[in-house]
């Protein structure tokens, strides 16, 4: 039996995925989470074989969850199921040790097969995205990405500094580095371009 935790912040999507996967006799849903922190607690408590997670979630993103799994040496393998068909996301997911990356519009049987493949130690990556992923590399550092994400949410440099325990000047430096690397005119354009590329 393959034991898995499902993390997805949209209730309808989570319910649909759970219902589909419950139809498979060799898959056992042992926990559901609506945000990243809740998913992390379930992973530590239940030690499932797999985590099936979205990328964008409150608390921790799917990619941050995958990084934590990797950093803490958990045996749980991570499969991302998302609407974000962007090569930048896939590259970051692979760097975070993700074993599966599928789009939500994939057929249900492909998801079940992907979970079995990953459980056996293989990889299950959307083939078209895999080709794209090697075309363009992400120029941002983790800290630049973090600062840019908060700027895109409408926070000013001082608010970002307070939230990340950085100085105001350091935040401004990170923002100007990101703007320069992306070749745009301001932080909003930098956020838009980085988001479009899947680098956030």
Automatic annotation (TrEMBL):
All copies of domain Response regulatory, residue ranges: 3-119
Keywords, comma-separated and alphabetical: DNA-binding, Phosphoprotein
Residue numbers of 4-aspartylphosphate PTMs: 54
Domain HTH luxR-type: 133-198
UniProt xrefs under InterPro entries: CheY-like_superfamily, Sig_transdc_resp-reg_C-effctor, Sig_transdc_resp-reg_receiver, Tscrpt_reg_LuxR_C, WalR-like
GO biological process, one term: phosphorelay signal transduction system
GO MF entries: DNA binding
Keyword Iron-sulfur: no
Name of the protein this chain belongs to: LuxR family two component transcriptional regulator
Organism: Pseudofulvimonas gallinarii
